[in-house]
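#help-structures
NK: newbie question, is this the right format to request a structure? protein is 3'(2'),5'-bisphosphate nucleotidase
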Amino acid sequence: MSYSTETQVAIAAAIQAAQLCQAVRRAIPEAMEKTDKSPVTVADYGSQAIICRAIAQSFPSDAIVGEEDAAELRRPEMADTLQKITSYVGALIPDATPEQVAGWIDRGNGTVAPRYWTLDPIDGTKGFLRQDQYAVAIALVEQGEVKVGVLACPALPGPGGETGVLYVAVRGQGATQVPLKGGNPTPLKVVSSEDVAHFRFVESVESSHGDRSRQEAVAQAVGITTESMRIDSQAKYGIVASGQAVLYLRLPSPKSPDYRENIWDHAAGAIVVEEAGGKVTDMYGKPLDFGTGTKMVDNRGVVVSNGAIHDQVIGVLAQS
Ligand SMILES: Nc1ncnc2c1ncn2[C@@H]1O[C@H](COP(=O)(O)OS(=O)(=O)O)[C@@H](OP(=O)(O)O)[C@H]1O
Ligand SMILES: [Mg+2]
Ligand SMILES: [Mg+2]
Ligand SMILES: [Mg+2]
């Protein structure tokens, strides 16, 4: 299957959602209280509304599993927030009503099915608020395997120095990056074995989303001598896919050892790296199973590499 309509719909939706997120972020006052999460709330919901509407229009019978839902938003005390979201959505979809917006968001309340879409309207919410990295992630999954992945990273510098990159991958057809503002797509390729300068690893900015000391020990054991790059969101997958780092480690945090990863936090990024020639598994070397539900209950941790060093990383993990 070529998945060309699916890919075009996901690309257009990701670009619009990213525009909405950037518009919300530009309006964040510099002196905003650190604890005020309202901008990310507006952008999260607005982004999910745009994406679900687009998918539902083109693929009315497909299930959509999104991170957010509109239950909170429908409460009377949230009317102002819903209005605000509707005005941001309305800048892209004229005449959108609050009721429609809530309905589009709830279209993302589906469950995992033989064929379904998953989306993270803003991945890296903490990065979004920090004016740092975040991503809009959309993926199509069939029989537990990701077939299409589209990842917009609106704050990430692209290869030409411009800000904002769109990563696109289709199973068996390779992966490309293109400036979010438009331009020519270029193929993505992971770090090659000779490219020692890029033998670096990436991990989360949030220390509670991983096990930093173990991640550092594993990286050192496979010959990575430089300090980690810390980047929010699935932008980390883009960094590995584009050959800027050889490894992304996400090991269970000692504070939440039973944590299971969400499908929407990995689906789009994983196929981008795989189609760029890399490998993605859990910490035991098992493929990520996107068919078990919203949480990947049969996987622990995530290891993303250029492929060449993968078995060595899994071997070190087995012994440590
Ligand atoms: N304990 C724990 N362990 C692992 N992962 C967790 C944990 N808690 C949360 N999350 C999920 O992490 C998502 C953010 O991704 P990152 O850690 O890559 O980015 S960041 O450093 O937090 O910005 C974040 O996604 P968003 O909610 O979309 O931001 C969460 O789904
Ligand atoms: Mg997320
Ligand atoms: Mg999110
Ligand atoms: Mg979240």
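mod (FA): yep, format's fine, and the tokens are attached above. The chain is about 35% helix and 20% strand.
NK: thank you!
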